[in-house]
Amino acid sequence: MFSDTPNLRLAAIDIGSNAARLLICYVLEMKNGSPEFIKLNLVRVPLRLGFDVFENGYISPKKENDIIDTLQAYKYLMKVHNVHHFVACATSAMRDAINSAEILEKVKKSTGIDIKVISGKEEAASIFENHIEKYLDKEHSYLYIDVGGGSTELTLFDNNELLFEESFNVGTVRMLKNKVHDQEWQRLKEFVKKSTNNHKKLVGIGSGGNINKISSLSKLKEGKPLSGDVLKDYYDTLCKISVEERMIKYNLREDRADVMLPALQIYNSVMRWANINEIYVPKFGLADGLIRNLYSQVVLQAANN
Predict the structure, then answer these.
(1) N or C: more exposed end of the chain, with fewer CB within 10 A?
(2) pLDDT digit string (tens) for 89-137?
(3) What pTM, to 2 d.p., does this model score?
(4) How is the chain split into domains, by residue range?
């Protein structure tokens, strides 16, 4: 049921191909009636499900236990934070795993958490829930580029109107495992070129842990975009050094150091095909969109009760 206390707390669990994230937010009701979502906790566990799924087609018993242990820990964290409502979703790796239904059943039995596997288009729509475009000018069109471990989601909007949302099986973990088919890469290329050539000058909006890290490393001032040249420079630098050297040079975890290079390849390619010269990095992702969508559902449920 909807809690009418002024300190509503919501949570979202995003189980991706590289990591599982728990985001817990406090909802602050503003005087104008719009909600503000204050982050209370963000936890990331590098489950790396894609390394199993994209290589072998299924989730191994070891990864299955890791999922259950992670979600059990998340359940306790939500309890400590007095979370009123939460949602749990899984994306590309779980979509592709032949034993996903079995895994989800075991997870629910062990933890009580019901995970919904969402499609690529549902993923793109949830990301769009962040409505970043309302903070930007209307002189440009905006291409939202979300790069994950298993897929890349693209959303184009112009004058606050959503024009398309599309998902592609092109992701960082898939690329590391050489599991991105040439046809899918070509489909991404042709779609971007065809879908963006008749719009006002495009600006990018980047989402995902890798571009967030690049933004932090570049010491980008808040509200300022990253230039395409900066992304190219990072790509050229990372190409020349090993994963271990990247970890040392940029103080990265191994599970970030290895996927950063394919992520940059995807961002650079999409931006080149769309003639995008700069990209904003607002540090919102799927979990943030899930929180906002959950809030809308909670409010609607309260209104109907």
Answers:
(1) C
(2) 999 999 999 999 999 999 999 999 999 999 888 887 777 666 665 556 7
(3) 0.87
(4) 9-120+287-304, 131-283
Backbone angles phi, psi at 280, to 5 degrees: -85, 145
- The first and second tokens of residue 1, run together, are 């049921």
- Tell me the CATH architecture of domain 9-120+287-304: 2-Layer Sandwich (3.30)
Please answer whether residues 297 and 249 qualify as being in contact, where contact means their C-beta atoms are separated by less than 8 angstroms: no
Instruction: Copy the structure tokens of residue 189.
Output: 């290329």
How far is it, in rounded angstroms, from Cα 116 to Cα 119?
Answer: 10
> 197: helix, coil or strand?
coil
Q: How far apart are the first and last CA of the chain?
A: 9
Q: Which residue has the tokens 């890349």?
A: 152
Which band of pLDDT confidence, cut at 50, 70 and 90, is reported for residue 199? confident
Instruction: Please check whether residue 54 is in contact with residue 16, taking contact to mean a CB–CB distance below 8 angstroms.
Output: no
The domain 131-283 is placed in CATH, from the list 3.30.450.20, 3.30.2420.10, 3.30.420.150, 3.30.470.30, at 3.30.420.150
Q: Which among 264, 217, 219, 224 has a CA at the least distance from the CA of 240?
A: 264
Helix (H, G, I), strand (E, B) or coil at 97: coil
Rounded mean pLDDT, 207-212: 91
Q: What HEC string does 235-246 produce?
A: HHHHHCCCHHHH
Equal fold, 9-120+287-304 vs 131-283: yes
274 phi, psi to nearest 5 deg: -95, 5
- Alpha-carbon dihedral 48, 51, 56, 58, rounded to 10 degrees: 10
Rounded to an integer, the average pLDDT of 215-231 is 89
